[in-house]
Amino acid sequence: MDISIADQIALDDALVDDHTGVTYGFYKGPYDLSYVVLILKSAGETKVPARGKALVLTDLSISVPKRAYARIALRSGLAWKHSIDIRACVIDADYMGPVRVILFNHYDADFEVKDGDRIAQLIIEKIITF
């Protein structure tokens, strides 16, 4: 699935794309600090081994707009309930392509990722220079 974030700038509330199931929303904060949030879902099953890591695929491909960057953020439920963490979280504006998430398992048992599991949040923010 390809999403042009620039096309979503007019959003005011969280929405769900009926075709892809991607949940996203546009938020406007103080000082014109606007950002877009997308919930990333796994595109297939993956096992994250105990005390190991795995690369989890999503069905999302992005192109980050100029003067913005994207970051992948952890879902707090995965951290609290399953000791899952994320690394390599920044996506620069010059990147175009599929989004993949690196999950780290800090627990003593394997963690199973099922197809369609919500694994992370993709946050796209403006870069403001002073």
From TrEMBL:
Catalytic reactions of this protein: dUTP + H2O = dUMP + diphosphate + H(+)
InterPro entries: dUTPase, dUTPase-like, dUTPase-like_sf, dUTPase_trimeric
Hydrolase keyword on record: yes
EC number: 3.6.1.23
Pfam families the record matches: dUTPase (PF00692)
Alphabetically ordered keywords of this record: Hydrolase, Magnesium, Metal-binding, Nucleotide metabolism
Obligatory cofactor(s): Mg(2+)
Pathway: Pyrimidine metabolism; dUMP biosynthesis; dUMP from dCTP (dUTP route): step 2/2
Domain dUTPase-like: from-to ranges: 40-128
Keyword presence, Hydrolase: yes
Class in the EC hierarchy, top level: hydrolase
Function of the molecule: Involved in nucleotide metabolism via production of dUMP, the immediate precursor of thymidine nucleotides, and decreases the intracellular concentration of dUTP so that uracil cannot be incorporated into DNA.
Family of the protein in this entry: Belongs to the dUTPase family.
Identification of the protein by name: Deoxyuridine 5'-triphosphate nucleotidohydrolase
